[in-house]
Specification:
heterodimer, A: mainly alpha, about 75% helix, about 0% strand, B: mainly alpha
Chain lengths: ~475, ~160
């Protein structure tokens, strides 16, 4: 089964290039949709344990070290979903080609799926690199100065992260002779004295992964990369790429490799809580739609990391649920920001006004997304935040749980500023003839809004299901 | 004796790396980088990693230098005014680099942190290179191939679209 998650996107790339003609070029979008739907379906077969035998029999020796648990399946589903949404947006954006884009999506899917399924810290590094390289190209593809600038910043920061992660992998290997998550975890927890090289390795690993995850104070590349890339790319980056790479790696390592090591949990918890507050405060001061969303992403990623730092089943549950929820509501907000920019030509908040009456669906779905981000019941974001805050309280991070709770008010405030500036009030003359976004944007935002509302309303059932599966 | 040679080579490596970062002329920077790679490969060879040395020499000192040099030949040089403006900013931007290196080296020399890697060396020697690459780390080789594929793909896409524009 895990083989298929890597093999199917790869087959997609091979087929599109092997039979390359102008006719096949038109099939790129369809192939992309098919691959992403297949991924969602396969992830569902793992989550609901249906048709397991059909897929699990397909294995290759090379990928034997991959494994999928329930959490990984949720992330794999999210990767499929956000890639699907990104393809729809690409299809309906003007002047954006889709053939090469689909192939880059396939490469990025291989990278993220691999990151999710690996059990080895060096393989993790390799798959993180696949994701990063494809991301640089996707951002640079817009070919305007700011996009190239964003891509270059990301490239530089990512290179520093790469060197750090690789150095720490080398030190771990030289010290313990293994890179397997479980074996490394067992060896680390059995240590009586901590040597200088292990401290060095941990510092490098924490810094490297924090850069990849965009945590404060290593977040410099995030706003430029998110806000300067084309619409479909910013949806993909904010929705899943940063989380499917760096954030997932941090959670998995906290879960399997460093569960007994309090100091690493404390470091990540501190970085997480700083990200929550600084991200939210920075978001308040932004005048650009996408930049505000980018800083909000930094803040929300802080919640995911802080939840995982508890090290308890409830903490991990909260982290993964917020992972999924953040992917849906942040992607929805990026879709809507793209829709507003496409219809008005503006991305600065102070130039926009009163679009609520003209773009009813965009305004409505935006409200759903930002209420969910701020943690207003009964939307999905409320539940995952509550679980994280309760988990923080239970595991002894009481001040952090209070800060996390109070930061929700900051989230609400910057999104109220955004909603008021963009959608409320009377439209100015310039926007008298503004129309609703095209059907691609509407479809994408409706799908995401429905997921947010449904997950929120049906949350007791979701929680019950996950409890039966033994997740907490 | 051997250690003295290593220290001299390491010193030269730091010097050429600094030269790469600080020099104004990009072509000279590329050459300095190639020299740094060559020095690194000699260090690797002396430390008993001939395979890593060969890779470092062929890829970093050879292939990468060729790619950089061809990129420089394809791009326009900035005009003298722009260059003068950049040079002004350069010193203030990079002045910290040598200071950081001197401070970090000083700290390392004073504290002399003991890094003990002897515990695992014996097990590493038992694995042959082929065995490690194709059997133990087969998945990573597949992953690296995809990384290279992504890189090549990126260059093709970005340059092809640029020539169209």
């Amino acid at each position: 089964m895990p083989t298929l998650f890597v093999l199917i996107p790869f087959i997609g790339i091979v087929l599109l290039n092997l039979f390359y003609t102008q006719g096949v070029k038109k099939l790129a979008f369809g192939t992309g949709i098919l691959v992403t739907l297949l991924q969602m379906f396969m992830a569902c077969t793992v989550i609901f344990q249906i048709a397991g035998n059909v897929f699990s029999s397909i294995e290759m020796d090379y990928f034997i070290s991959f494994s999928i648990d329930m959490y990984a399946a949720i992330v794999l589903f999210t990767i499929g979903l956000i890639s699907f949404i990104s393809l729809i947006i690409r299809r309906h954006s003007d002047n954006d080609e889709i053939f090469n884009f689909s192939q880059l999506i396939f490469i990025i899917m291989i990278g993220m799926n691999g990151t999710v399924m690996v059990n080895d810290i060096f393989s993790l590094y390799v798959f993180l690199e696949i994701t990063s390289v494809a991301s640089f190209i996707l951002i640079a593809k817009k070919k305007v100065l700011m996009a190239l600038n964003g891509s270059f910043k990301y490239l530089l920061m990512s290179s520093i992260a790469t060197v750090m992660i690789l150095t720490s992998v080398a030190i771990f290997f030289m010290t313990f002779g293994t890179l397997n998550y479980n074996e490394l975890g067992a060896q680390l927890s059995g240590l009586t004295t901590v040597s200088t090289q292990i401290i060095l390795a941990v510092i490098f690993l924490v810094t490297g992964l924090s850069i990849k995850a965009g945590l404060v104070p290593f977040h410099m590349w995030v706003p430029d990369a998110y806000s300067n890339s084309s619409d479909s790319v910013s949806v993909l980056l904010a929705g899943i790429v940063t989380k499917g790479g760096g954030v997932y790696a941090i959670i998995r390592l906290l879960m399997v490799v460093f569960p007994q090591i309090a100091i690493i949990q404390d470091i990540f918890a501190l970085l997480g809580i700083i990200s929550i507050v600084v991200g939210a405060l920075m978001a308040i001061g932004q005048n650009e739609f996408k930049k505000m969303l980018a800083y909000s992403s930094i803040s929300q990623i802080g919640y995911i990391i802080v939840g995982a730092c508890c090290g308890t089943p409830l903490g991990f549950l909260g982290a993964f649920l917020h992972f999924f929820n953040h992917a849906t509501f942040k992607s929805l907000l990026f879709v809507n920001s793209a829709a507003v920019e496409a219809q008005t030509g503006h991305k600065e908040l102070d130039k926009l006004q009163g679009l609520g009456g003209k773009m009813k669906i965009t305004a409505g779905t935006s409200a759903i997304a930002f209420l969910s981000t701020a943690g207003i019941p009964p939307l999905s974001g409320f539940w995952s935040k509550v679980i994280i805050i309760v988990a923080l309280w239970q595991c002894g991070y009481v001040p952090y749980s209070v800060i996390a709770l109070l930061a929700s008010i900051l989230t609400l405030s910057y999104f109220l500023i955004l909603q008021r500036k963009v959608f409320f009030g009377k439209p100015t003359e310039e926007f008298e003839n503004t129309k609703e976004a095209n059907k691609g944007f509407i479809t994408a935002s409706m799908i995401l809004a429905i997921i947010i509302v449904l997950v929120g309303i049906a949350f007791p059932f979701v929680l019950n299901f996950l409890k039966i599966k033994g997740l907490f | 004796m051997n250690n003295t040679v290593l220290y001299i080579l390491l010193g030269l490596l730091v010097f050429s790396s600094l030269f790469t970062a600080l020099i104004k002329n990009t072509l000279k920077a590329v050459i300095a980088l190639a020299i740094a790679s060559a020095l690194l490969s000699i260090i690797m060879f002396l430390m008993g990693a001939p395979l890593a040395a060969v890779f470092e020499l062929s890829v970093c000192a050879g292939l990468v230098t060729a790619i950089f040099a061809s990129t420089i030949s394809l791009t326009d040089q900035p005009n003298p005014e722009q260059q003068a403006e950049k040079n002004k900013k350069r010193l203030s931007r990079y002045i910290y680099l040598p200071i950081i290196i001197i401070v970090v080296t000083g700290i390392i020399l004073i504290t002399k942190p003991g890094l003990d890697f002897t515990s695992f060396t014996s097990t590493v020697a038992e694995n042959t290179v082929q065995n490690t690459i194709w059997h133990t780390r087969g998945l990573d080789i597949a992953g690296q191939i995809i990384v290279i594929l992504a890189g090549v793909f990126g260059i093709v896409i970005l340059f092809k679209e640029r020539s169209k524009n």
